[in-house]
């Protein structure tokens, strides 16, 4: 029984973390768009780096598998 509870809690935590990453993904895409509009190369590079990190984290969680 304890193992089932543990698995359910882990699943809930993963879902919450996935949702947080998806929200951060949306925010970062908006930031990238703004940086592209302003031609801010430094911010574009930073946003692209963070987007790649988010993608890797989501892949680890098998969200897009």
Short description:
By secondary structure, the protein is an all-alpha fold. The chain contains 2 helices and no strands.
Report on the architecture of this protein.
- With 65 residues, the chain is mainly α.
- It has helices spanning 2-38, 41-60.
- Helix 1 (2-38) runs antiparallel to helix 2 (41-60).
- The longest helix is centred in the N-terminal third of the chain and has 37 residues, at 2-38.
- The two termini are 29 Å apart.
- 2% of the residues are buried.
- The model has no long low-confidence stretch (mean pLDDT 89).
Mean pLDDT: 89
The arrangement of helices and strands along the chain is HH
Gap between N and C termini, in Å?
Answer: 29 Å
Gross geometry: elongated
Poorly predicted runs of 5 or more residues = none
- Bin the strand percentage: under 5%
Radius of gyration equals: 16 Å
Helix content: over 70%
From the helix content, strand content and strand pairing, which structural class follows? mainly alpha
Q: What is the count of DSSP helices, taking H or I runs of 4+ residues?
A: 2
Largest sheet: none
- The tally of strands reads 0
SSE arrangement:
Blueprint: H1 2-38, H2 41-60
List keywords for this structure.
65 residues; single chain
């Amino acid at each position: 029984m304890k193992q089932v509870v543990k698995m359910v809690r882990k699943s809930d935590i993963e879902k919450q973390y996935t949702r947080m990453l998806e929200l951060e993904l949306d925010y970062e895409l908006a930031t990238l768009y703004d940086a592209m509009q302003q031609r801010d190369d430094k911010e574009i590079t930073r946003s692209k780096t963070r987007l790649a990190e988010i993608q890797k984290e989501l892949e680890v969680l098998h969200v897009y598998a």
